[in-house]
Amino acid sequence: MSEMILFQDGVLIDPLSQRDGKYDVLIRNGQIESIKSSIELKKEYRIVNLKDKIFCPGFIDMHVHLREPGFEHKETIETGTLSAAFGGFTAVCCMPNTNPAIDDESIALFVQSQGKRANGGIVDVYPVGAVTKRREGKELAPIAELVQAGAVALSDDGAPVSDAEMMRRAFEYAGMFDVPIIQHCEEPTLAKHGVVNEGFVSTSLGLPGIPSVAEEVMIARDLILTQYTNGRYHIAHVSTAGSVELIRRAKKEKNRVTCEVTPHHFTLTDELVRSYNTNTKMNPPLRTQTDIDAIKEGLRDGTIDVIATDHAPHSLDEKEVDFLQAPFGIVGLETAIGLAMTELVHTGILSLNQLVEKFSVNPRRIVGKPITVEEGQEANFTFIDPNAEWKVDIGQFKSKSKNTPFGDRVLKGRAVGIMNHGQLFLY
Amino acid sequence: MKLSSKHLLGLYKMPAKDIELIVETATSFKEILNRPIKKVPTLQGKTIANLFFENSTRTRISFELAERRLSADVVNFSSAGSSVSKGETLKDTARNIEAMKIDMVVIRHNIAGTPHFLTQVVKSNVINAGDGLHEHPTQALLDMYTLQEKFGKLENVRVCIVGDIAHSRVALSNIYGLTTMGAQVSVCGPATLIPRNIQMLGVKVFHHIDDILPKVDALNVLRIQLERQAGGMFPTLREYHRFFGVTKERLGRVDHPITIMHPGPINRDVELSADVADGPHSVILEQVLNGVAVRMAVLYLLSATE
């Protein structure tokens, strides 16, 4: 007996098939049966009314830290994927800074099998393998084996591959398998022990700064190496106006470069750090309004391809210490769509179509996991209520950790469900 | 008259009337310090904990003396050999000490923002005795008190802070306090020791000391730390002394007297030549006495807040 679901009266937005309007979509056993402007009702259909809602190809967060194995007190693959599901994501790419690191095929396979077990496997977990063994930047990790075992990209995230020679070899070697290298751009000799953006706020708080040039110097270096090696380069969490400009120029020169930005970097400035609240400590740090303006322009003109959260759970005890000792990072999965809708769509910077590109089409293309919304294909959708006003309540977070500066913030627009692998999850 | 906050965390955005009140109160306490019997019962029955997580001699002695002159009970805690070295968090240390019924906490810490963090975990009044490279409010208050004594006002007094501005909580607190009071503040030092965007705090920046000397009434000369040389911030102490050192010869080229302050301890003949430190326009020892009076004023005024 087949299960039939009819999505009725919703606005389907799929940039790839150039659909942007009201469609009815019929699903049979998790597969798309038909997409029409109107589908006749039958009594065996389970009807899901999507009036005033949007549905689009399933969103992917290509930059999350699921913390398993090694740091299960912060997050597990079970809680992290539940957080993703509630945030409206049908897939996540998990970074390799676990313990042990994902620098070996056995860990890559373990992470995927945990992902398939977690929450019925509704959220796909795609591992990002390490570039170097133990992420130490000294010897290449077994990149071919990692890719064969399912790694969709390579990164030493949390730290950069700081040695230029190592980065060159990584580009060359990974280039054989056409996987991108995701770089956390931070020149360590310039960033030193900084904890906030270097500028007026770091000066007035007496906190050591991370200058914008620490990010930009490494991006400039890597862009040159990309061109030399024909490597594929993806820049994680772009945070400065100078970086946006470097990437814009590189794209004009047809460099093989893509990049992402986090919701906090287009929403918050370093002024928020004045509270010494450790939930304003992340790496890269919150920058200035000038940087936010440049990032928004980069999102609008296509320089920035992807919105990714850098979801970085830490336990309360770890964050409830002084500012220097607190770890970097905030959780992001459950606030990402709300922040992007509020800050980018409702302000007219991005169309809904562009939003779907940044959350689904582009990141899925970069990691090689595209979705086709056509008859005969598996149904993989994110459902959004674009006008729902809601207040961020950290008590409701499904993530094991609650480290966010967005508690009690009022947002407009939120995810209301996902569908993947035959499972429909609406909330 | 009361202060507008129950804590003294810094001079950032502290209202002018609070600064005036502290300076005024310090004046009456200084009078007590000049009496044969230098003790008053003002804080009798109050217990004050001095939490020093960073080495300090002068500031700790000055606070302790101020507390004892006001008849408070004093407990001292320094991080060497304490439970902190056994891995206890600041939060737990502070809560444990407070559980012993402490009324006020004086904290010095090598990390910026720790006094602010402390106010979130304990109920006592918190006084910042220096946090990392952030603020040292009582030092700046005693500097302002000293200037007020010397010039009778702070408004339009021209003060230049000389030296390692980037690694100085004294500089930052002075800038906040002095600009609030309408003084004209400048900083002078090697470009590597001037923090980014400091001019946004309302100060002028100079890199050649002879350019600024004719335009100031007072210099606040900061201690230059040898470890900054190792960090690549300046080449040698000799070069520093030759280009930024405050010397008698240099001051002699200016046609008006310039008041000399220093928060101590002095590197004689590095940032300040010995004859200037001991010279007629030096108020360095006056600063030390005023420090006790200012800290008495702060303790007294905070004890009256809720």
Features:
heterodimer; A: alpha/beta; Urease, subunit C, domain 1; TIM Barrel; 2 domains; eight-stranded parallel β-sheet; 13 helices; 18 strands; 30% helix; B: 306 residues; Rossmann fold; four-stranded parallel β-sheet; globular
Give an overview in words.
The complex is a heterodimer of chains A (427) and B (306). Chain A has 427 residues and is an alpha/beta fold. Chain A folds into 2 domains: 4-55 and 376-426, Urease, subunit C, domain 1 (Roll); 59-367, Metal-dependent hydrolases (TIM Barrel). Chain A is 30% helix and 23% strand. In chain A, strands 1, 2, 3, 4, 5, 16, 17 and 18 form an 8-stranded mixed sheet that branches. In chain A, strands 6-7-8-9-10-13-14-15 form an 8-stranded parallel sheet. In chain A, helix 4 crosses helix 7, helix 7 runs parallel beside helix 8 (241-252) and helix 8 (241-252) packs parallel to helix 10. The model of chain A has no long low-confidence stretch (mean pLDDT 97). Chain B is of the alpha/beta class and 306 residues long. Chain B folds into 2 domains: 16-136 and 288-303, Rossmann fold; 137-286, Rossmann fold, CATH 3.40.50.1370. A 5-stranded parallel sheet of chain B has the order 7-6-5-8-9. In chain B, strand 5 (158-162), helix 6 (169-180) and strand 6 (184-188) form a beta-alpha-beta unit. In chain B, helix 5 packs across helix 12. The model of chain B has no long low-confidence stretch (mean pLDDT 93). Chain A binds chain B through residues 198-200, 202-209, 211, 275-276, 320-325, and chain B through 12, 89-91, 109, 111-114, 116-117, 131-135, 169, 172, 195-198, 200-201.
Brief summary of the model shown:
With 427 residues, chain A is an alpha/beta fold. Chain A has helices spanning 77-87, 105-117, 143-148, 164-175, 188-191, 200-205, 212-229, 241-252, 263-267, 289-301, 316-319, 336-345, 352-366, and strands at 4-14, 19-28, 31-36, 45-49, 54-57, 59-64, 89-94, 124-129, 153-155, 181-183, 196-197, 209-210, 233-235, 257-261, 306-307, 381-391, 410-420, 423-426.
